[in-house]
């Protein structure tokens, strides 16, 4: 049995009482909560009705896929069962990482990249996820594209870099010539990159998939109420003890207060924004979400939040919608059942699909 070295457990304040579980998510940060502890600054008007005392939740942490993963399991689950379920969920995330990480040369994606131009046999699981990624690339017109990894290293967003610089035009154009999701071929049990120098990167969908797999493992272990937090991308399962949905509060990345309060039950909430990895040069912000049509940081959005039935879909759509911007991005979201999205535009207005628009304070909506 694999136990990640960073695995820990600690008790919280109540069963999935997310007032104490704030996550760096959504348009800056998200907190999902039901009842706030005394003195909590952000407790106002969000599920403030008192509830009966419930057992403290079980919380577990591990570093996986290059990001901190957290699991919060309902406190009515026995501790031994919770530990075993969390261990199994983390093991599943590690398995997905070992198979699909573009950063690992021994992964299936790593082997495809190393053999660009030649077919590489891979598992049914990897082919299935790649098919989904390619379908989303087609639907978004390439705004989401798993062949983006040919640009790896062209842009550098190192933390603490005091002398950032733009990539050379020739380097950028050369890399862009090798980005083309239509040149990713699935041939029987094999995957082939049609152009030498191409590279796959499933980071924009594989983390969501790993979150979904972890959720499936927890359910199979008899846990029905839980939160999977993959570096701020959430899957929330079950309801509060009184039967109501959990609420996720979406903070504004540029201004004070909340942008929205989203009810979430058995769904994922994933975000993308220009605040995650960036540098500023000449008075302009350059961030890591690249518009692959130009090779430059996408400039039609500041941040995007997506609520979807599964994290796999929410993960990929968050990137695609960010690149497309409000009009085209929300039209894309509307093509998928159960998906809602909100986009913070550069002019400060927030655009949303009908199911979320009513959740936006009037001051943030376009005039």
Explain this structure to me?
This protein is α+β, with helices and mostly antiparallel strands and 367 residues long. It has two domains: 8-94 and 223-364, Roll (T-fold), CATH 3.10.520; 108-204, ApbE-like superfamily (T-fold, Orthogonal Bundle). Helices cover 26% and strands 25% of the residues. It has eight helices and 20 strands. The strands form five sheets. The protein has a nine-stranded antiparallel β-sheet. The chain is globular. The N and C termini lie far apart (56 Å).
CATH class of the largest domain: Alpha Beta
- The overall pLDDT, averaged over residues, is 83
Structural class: alpha+beta
Biggest β-sheet, characterized? 9 strands, antiparallel
End-to-end distance: 56 Å
The total number of structural domains is 2
If you consult CATH, what is the topology of the largest domain?
A: T-fold
Taking Cα atoms only, what radius of gyration do you get, to the nearest Å? 21 Å
Q: How do the helices and strands line up, and which of them pair or pack?
A:
Blueprint: E1 8-11, E2 22-23, E3 30-33, E4 58-64, E5 67-73, H1 79-100, H2 108-114, E6 120-121, H3 124-139, H4 169-176, E7 184-187, E8 190-193, H5 203-220, E9 226-230, E10 233-237, E11 246-251, E12 258-264, E13 267-273, E14 278-281, E15 284-287, E16 290-291, E17 296-297, E18 303-308, H6 311-324, H7 326-333, E19 340-344, E20 350-352, H8 354-357
Antiparallel strand pairs: 1-4, 2-3, 3-11, 4-5, 5-9, 6-8, 7-8, 9-10, 10-13, 11-12, 13-18, 14-15, 16-17, 18-19, 19-20
Helix pairs in contact: 1-5, 5-6, 6-7
């Amino acid at each position: 049995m694999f136990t990640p070295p960073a695995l820990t457990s600690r008790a919280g304040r109540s069963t999935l009482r997310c007032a104490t579980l704030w996550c760096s998510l959504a348009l800056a940060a998200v907190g999902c909560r039901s009842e706030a502890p005394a003195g909590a600054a952000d407790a106002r008007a969000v599920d403030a009705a008192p509830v009966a005392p419930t057992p403290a939740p079980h919380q577990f942490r591990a570093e996986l896929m290059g990001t901190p993963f957290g699991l919060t399991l309902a406190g009515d689950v026995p501790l031994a069962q919770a530990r075993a379920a969390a261990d199994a969920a983390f093991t599943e995330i590690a398995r997905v990482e070992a198979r699909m990480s573009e950063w690992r040369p021994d992964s299936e994606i790593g082997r495809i990249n190393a053999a660009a131009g030649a077919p590489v046999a891979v598992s049914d699981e990897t082919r299935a996820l790649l098919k989904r990624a390619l379908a989303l690339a087609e639907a978004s017109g390439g705004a989401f594209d798993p062949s983006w990894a040919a640009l790896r290293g062209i842009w550098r967003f190192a933390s603490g870099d005091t002398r950032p610089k733009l990539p050379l035009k020739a380097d950028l154009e050369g890399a862009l010539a090798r980005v083309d999701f239509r040149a990713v071929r699935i041939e029987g049990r094999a995957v082939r990159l049609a152009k030498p120098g191409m590279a796959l990167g499933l980071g924009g969908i594989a983390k969501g998939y790993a979150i979904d797999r972890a959720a499936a493992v927890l359910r199979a272990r008899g846990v029905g109420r839980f939160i999977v937090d993959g570096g701020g991308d959430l899957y929330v399962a079950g309801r509060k003890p009184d039967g109501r949905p959990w609420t996720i509060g979406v903070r504004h990345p540029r201004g004070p207060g909340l942008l929205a309060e989203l009810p979430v039950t058995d769904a994922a909430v994933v975000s993308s924004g220009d605040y995650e990895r960036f540098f500023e040069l000449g008075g302009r912000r350059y961030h890591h979400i690249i518009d692959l049509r130009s090779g430059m940081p996408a400039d039609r959005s500041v941040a995007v939040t997506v609520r979807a039935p599964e994290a796999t879909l929410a993960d990929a759509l968050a990137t695609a919608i960010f690149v497309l911007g409000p009009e085209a991005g929300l039209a894309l979201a509307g093509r998928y059942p159960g998906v809602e999205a909100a986009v913070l535009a550069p002019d400060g207005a927030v655009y949303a699909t009908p199911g979320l628009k009513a959740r936006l304070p009037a001051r943030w909506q376009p005039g």
